[in-house]
Design brief:
Order of helices and strands: HEHEEEEEEEEHEEHEEEEEEHEEH
Shape: globular
Number of strands: 19
Distance between the termini: 25 Å
Number of helices: 6
Helix content: 10-25%
Radius of gyration: 21 Å
Strand order of the largest sheet: 6-5-2-1-7
Structural class: alpha+beta
């Protein structure tokens, strides 16, 4: 079936398999295998998004699949998501739908509904909500889902706290292999550069070159990760990978050897999602991607 059919008919929580209908290459051809895996896989449907109009173009409707997690000591550090647009050329199928009796925990955010967890029962859903710190509704919906608010906040608190926030979300390509260093106190710090691009505008219209292609402006961002997250990024990220970074802006100021004030800006990453196949999945350790019965929730 097509991506449009998935958007129209598949329920949140369903396992979706996608393929480009090409045969899987032998394992010894690592680059070909990695390219094949980018177009062939399975994930749980966690979000659907409608078309979004922008000043110069309209983004098509899309849906997001949760394909797995990287974890350490039982703590999820990185989630692997893949988003497919309605005009995708891949072929999709519903491999499994939520079973009768299962309960979905949903979060409304940004005009969309996102699946946070798929529980085996109402009691299991209530325990998960309490453990993760979300605000539950008063009653369980009879069709099998809970709607929750963000962690530990009422709607009034959320509105008040949004007045003062330092939140950054960047999606782009890694510019170079992440670099790791250790401070004197033993803190491990991982740095990498992230490139984001957008069309160049002139008087509200997209500029094009002599060949008719859009002119793009690229900006570079310095990303900093600490400890466990930094270790995961250093082990599984490389130049050219596409990632989604959630974090905050951090400004620094210092005086150089000439006595001049100098300023710096970096993004402190709190979460990094892999939007392309991680390095380990292209080599010999695919088991690092957690795919047990409880994943992706």
């Amino acid at each position: 079936m097509s991506a449009t059919t998935i958007l129209d008919t598949a329920p949140l929580g369903a396992l979706i398999r996608y393929t480009d209908s090409t045969p899987k290459p032998p394992a010894r051809f690592t680059k070909k295998l990695a390219a094949w895996e980018r177009s062939n896989g399975v994930g749980r449907l966690v979000k659907k998004e409608p078309p979004r109009p922008y000043p110069t173009w309209t983004a098509p409707a899309s849906f997001t699949l949760h394909e797995g997690n990287f974890s350490s000591d039982g703590v999820i550090l990185v989630t692997i998501m893949r988003t497919h647009s309605a005009d995708s050329a891949l072929t999709f199928e519903v491999a499994e739908e939520p079973q009768p009796g299962q309960v979905r925990v949903l979060l409304d955010f940004g005009g969309c509904t996102e699946l946070l967890h798929l529980a085996e029962s109402v009691t299991a859903a209530e325990l998960w909500i309490a453990r993760e710190g979300y605000c539950p509704p008063c009653t369980h919906h009879p069709t099998g889902f809970f709607r929750v608010l963000s962690k530990g906040r009422s709607r009034r608190q959320e509105t008040q706290e949004l007045i003062m926030q330092n939140i950054v979300i960047l999606a782009g390509n890694i510019g170079q292999t992440p670099e790791v260093r250790t401070t004197q106190s033993g803190t491990k710090i991982t740095n990498f550069s992230l490139a984001t691009s957008r069309p160049r505008l002139s008087e509200g219209r997209v500029m094009r070159d002599e060949n008719g292609y859009r002119v793009m402006d690229t900006e570079w961002h310095r990303i900093t990760c600490f400890n466990g997250l930094g270790k995961t990024v250093a082990e599984h990220c490389e130049k050219g990978m596409k990632v989604l970074v959630h974090g905050r802006i951090h400004y620094t100021k210092w005086i150089d050897s000439m006595g001049n004030d100098r300023y710096g800006c970096e993004i402190i990453a709190e979460k990094v999602d892999f939007l392309s196949r991680p390095k380990s999945a292209e080599n010999e350790n695919p088991e690092l991607v957690d795919r047990d019965d409880e994943i992706p929730f």
